[in-house]
Write a structure and sequence with these properties.
Elements: H1 10-21, E1 28-32, H2 39-51, H3 64-70, E2 77-80, H4 89-99, E3 109-112, H5 120-131, E4 138-143, H6 151-154, E5 158-161, H7 172-185, H8 190-197, H9 204-219, H10 230-251, H11 256-268
Parallel strand pairs: 1-4, 1-5, 2-3, 3-4
Helix pairs in contact: 2-3, 4-5, 7-8, 7-9, 9-10, 10-11
Length: 269
């Protein structure tokens, strides 16, 4: 299938293609990725791979079905997005009702664009449908962090993590992230790390992009145990763990500058 994502996702794409080609597509997927990763485009590509009548599993990109999906007006595709803070439970019920109807083509697909916007009531409303999916329906839940969803939701979905730097984490942000990673791997102390990063974390969004870019750069240094470079890999793993925790805290509304500094203290010592 045609996905505009980093090479690190080839294994994931191969698995999704195989599921389509063999008719083993699961009824629910939890698609995770950083804030600036285009998870909706990824979900669209998967939907095209399933529904495209010309090349099963390939999404040709030039037929009427693919064109409709690209323009969000395919008759069997339902989108659910947040309104302000949360996704209203009435919208969840309406989306569920729509995917229980007879599809115009092969199956109904529900894409929940903001899984982070599902509160406990909304998730529990969705749960019965995940337990007993109607017909050949398919549900994709897009989220930055699947661990924030209820365990009962997570356990009924295939989890797909989209790796890679986002378009927003490019240019100066990517350059800054790469420099900070080099400093971290070189054992730079906290005061040097924060001096390098201070200007780049003035805004919350910039701070999140920088963390995402740093995590992406560090993942390149992870190697299997016993293959050499274990010390670098261990330091990278520790730093990635600290970054994931920091990103989660910032998403939950904690002061981004304070959290970023705390993260660097953990990483740089």
């Amino acid at each position: 299938m045609k996905f505009d994502v980093a090479e690190e996702n080839k294994g994931l794409i191969d698995r999704l293609e195989h599921s389509v080609e063999t008719g083993t597509v699961f009824h629910a997927y939890l698609i995770e990725g950083g804030k600036q990763v285009d998870k909706k485009a990824f979900a669209r590509a998967f939907a095209k791979g399933i529904l495209c009548p010309k090349r099963l599993g390939e999404n040709c990109g030039d037929c009427g079905t693919c064109d409709k999906i690209d323009h969000d007006n395919h008759e069997d595709l339902v989108y659910l997005a947040r309104k302000k803070a949360n996704i209203p439970v009435e919208d969840v019920r309406d989306a569920i009702r729509r995917i229980t109807l007879q599809p115009m083509n092969t199956r109904n697909i529900l894409i929940i664009e903001d899984g982070d916007g599902l509160n406990d009531v909304g998730q529990n409303t969705l749960l019965k449908t995940l337990e007993e999916p109607p017909g050949q329906s398919l549900i994709m839940i897009l989220t930055e962090n699947g661990d924030e969803l209820l365990p009962t939701i997570r356990s009924r979905c295939v989890r797909c993590r989209i790796e890679g730097a986002s378009p927003a984490a490019a240019g100066e942000t990517a350059e800054k992230a790469g420099k900070l990673v080099d400093m971290i791997l070189g054992g730079a102390p906290y005061y040097r790390l924060i001096r390098e990063a201070e200007e780049a974390i003035s805004q919350r969004e910039n701070c999140m992009e920088l963390i995402e870019g740093m995590e992406y750069a560090l993942r390149k240094h992870l190697v299997p145990q016993g293959t050499g470079g274990d010390a670098v890999s261990a330091r990278s793993a520790k730093a990635i763990e600290a970054m994931e925790e920091a990103a989660d805290q910032i998403r939950r509304g904690m002061a981004h500058r304070y959290i970023f500094r705390k993260m660097l203290l953990t990483i740089g010592g």
